[in-house]
Structures are given as structure tokens and as C-alpha cells.
Amino acid sequence: MGWMDLPLELLELIFQRLCLDDAMNGRATCRSWRKAADAIFSSQLPLMLSLSTSTSSYIKSDSNNFGSLSAPWSNHDSTVFTETWPQGINRTDNRVHSVQGWLMFNIFHYVSDKSQTFSELSFFNPFSRARFKLPKLFLFSGKPDYHQVRVAFNSAPPGSEEFVLAFLCVFSYKTKRVHQTRTYETRLAFIKFKQGSWIELETTETAEIFYDIEVHGDNKLYGLTVKHKTRVVFVFTLRDNHRDDHVVERLVMLNNLECIFPGNFVVNYEFFRRSHQMVMDTSTGELLLVRHDRCASDLNGCYDSICTKGFRVFKLDRSNLRWCEVFDIGNRFLFWDYTKVSLVSAKGLRLAEQFKRGNCIFFCHANTHREQKYPIPDIQDRFRIKEHDMGVFFLADRTISHFSINSSLPFSLLNMWFSPAPWLV
């Protein structure tokens, strides 16, 4: 019997003991090894994906690699993607989202002769290199001063007929008046893959600026707005037509959580760093609202440092119209980053002893600060990487265990949780 003929159970035991680099290399050997490796990937916690992307032309990444995958809770278990960025994707573009084993890039297209801006969502599987795109979505006329994007999706695999994705874009621009004022607008739309076209959603209140959205598998979309904060939950029914009757409920809550925006509302980089994010348990239909508490920011350059103090979790009680705080989420995990918060069941996962009970929240924030030196040296030397804000928050005793970053990994300004799905093509 050769190595390629070993029973699947034995191969899985072998792959369990391999680091990510060796598992990835072994996966490329033959079909049986690939099947064993994929079984391991599907039974582990999401990994941290650090993209070698830069939000500024002044900040140069350390290499031309696509990025790196790591399990920060296991010391130095990491691997670097040696593949280059997919063709047509700008590595300085930070509008990237992790969608069930795929990366979704939001690419803006400006048509100068019509003065219109469109969005195109491109999906890329970094393992299989498979790709597909969604139809372009018209956003607005002209160019905005600033914009932020939010996406939500159901539990169906990307590219399948059942896949549903909702897209939220909040943008700002200055009016052409003598005394220029800043105006904010929202574009909220969804697409069902089997239908193949975007459908825009509108609320009965035209002044609504949506803050967060979440999709449930029963064709429901939940939305929070800046105006109402957590006092009102909008519920859309995602129909298959373009009629304007998608708003079916407006849940007015009897209690309001701490302000999402303590001061004046501004669409800027800080708006991207949301303090509250919704997540849906697709198995139970339970809608959770997760609040991130952090220490006061030290604005010392183009990015401010993040220091997590803790988290609080609330559940939507639809019968009593209240947000109820949850102190125990059972054998489940929450994975928080600034693109989304995802919920993972511990059932069937291979876990370290400290995580077997679930009831904790993993977080990964990239931190940088800019050192002010005079005279100014080379611009690249002004940027120094600080200790990243990464760790796990245990809800039971409200303690934090921090993770250290592997110094050998490529420089990154964007960390997110990613569940490898190399078998999805």
C-alpha cells in the first residue's frame, strides 16, 4: 500500500498534525490527500486572513504575495499565499469581504461621459482560483467625496441558485450651493443569483441612512439606521420582482441601547469601524446584535490604534419588542472584524480544550500608527506597525486572552476571519 492509498481516516489524523503550510502543500499531491485536507479545513475554526493590501500609495507592502492565513491562537501556525493578486483587482483596494470561503471585491467603475458610478462585485476563491462576477449596480451620478460599503448574505454557497446577497452603500457629497453643505445618501439593493438582476429597496422614510444590514434564509433582510439607531428594526421581504412593497415590518423597540453614534454623524473611516454589528443564527432564526467596547483612540496619524475592552451581546425579542442582553451564547463562537461578525457552531469542530465550551468572541484588528519625525525621513519610515489588537473574549468571566502576531507574516492593514473552502469551485 502506497501513501496515496492510505484510508481517509488515517490521512485525516496525519493532516491534523500538520501546520498550514504543509497541509496546503500536501493537499496539492493527489485527490485522496486533497479530500483529507478539505475535511480538516471544514472542521476547524475560521482562520485569520491578512491581506497584503495597502490603503495608501505611501505604504508599501512587504511583498507581492496575496496575503497570509494564520491561526493566531496556535502560536506560529501560518502560511503565506505566494499567488499574486487576481487580475483586474487593485491591491490598494481595501473594499474586501469574506463570504463563505470566497473573497468578494467591491470594484467601483466611474463612467466619465455619463458622470455615473457603478459597483461590480467580483468573487474569488484564493484556493481554487475560481472567479465569478455579479452584474453591475448603478450607485449614483457623479463621484462622491466618501463612501462606505456593507454586504450581507444568506447561508447558501456563493454562486448557487439559492445565493442571496444584499448590498449597502452610504456615500456623501457637497451640494453646489454658495454655502456648501454635506449630503448623505444610501443605496440598498439585493440580488438573487437565480434571478440575475439587482432590486433596489426603499424605506417609507426617505431620510433614512442605513447603518447595518443582515439577511436571513427566509428571504428577510434586517436593517438598522443612523436616525433610529437600535430603537427601530426595519424588516424587508426580498421578493422576486421590482415592486416597492418590500418593507413589511417596522419593529419599534421598547428599549434603546447605547448610542451607536455618540456625536454628529459623519461618513469617514471611523464609520467603517462600527461599534455595533448584527449577525443571524441561520439554524434558529435568532438575530443578535454585538457591541464592541474599545479604549479611547489615540489619533496619531492616518490610522488610530484600537484596544478592545470587551463585548456585549443582545438578542432581538420580537414578541416583547426588546433587546435582551445575552451572557451565554452556548456552544457557539462569534468572530468579529470590521467587515462583519459571523457565528460559528462548535458542533463537529476539532477544538483546543480552552475553546470546547464555546461562548467566546474572537477578534482581529490591524493597528498602525505614524511616527512624527522632523525633518521628515523617507515616507515609508513614518509608518510603524503596532501590536495588533487580536484575541478572544470569554463571555463567562468577561476576560480577554490576547494573541501575538507572527513577525514573519507580510505587512497588512486589513485582517478578517476567513473559512477556507477550497472544494468550492
Describe the protein in words.
The protein has helices at 8-16, 20-27, 31-41, 269-272, and strands at 47-51, 67-70, 78-81, 96-99, 102-111, 116-124, 131-133, 137-141, 146-153, 164-174, 182-192, 198-201, 210-216, 220-225, 229-237, 247-252, 276-281, 286-294, 308-317, 322-326, 332-336, 341-345, 360-365, 368-370, 383-385, 389-394, 399-402, 414-418. By secondary structure, the chain is mainly beta. It has 2 domains: 1-41, Monooxygenase (Up-down Bundle); 42-418, Neuraminidase (6 Propeller). Strands 4, 5, 6, 7 and 8 form a 5-stranded antiparallel beta sheet that branches. It has a 5-stranded mixed beta sheet with strand order 22-21-23-26-27, with no helix packed on it. Strand 13 (210-216) and strand 14 form a beta hairpin. Helix 1 packs across helix 3 (31-41) and helix 2 packs antiparallel against helix 3.
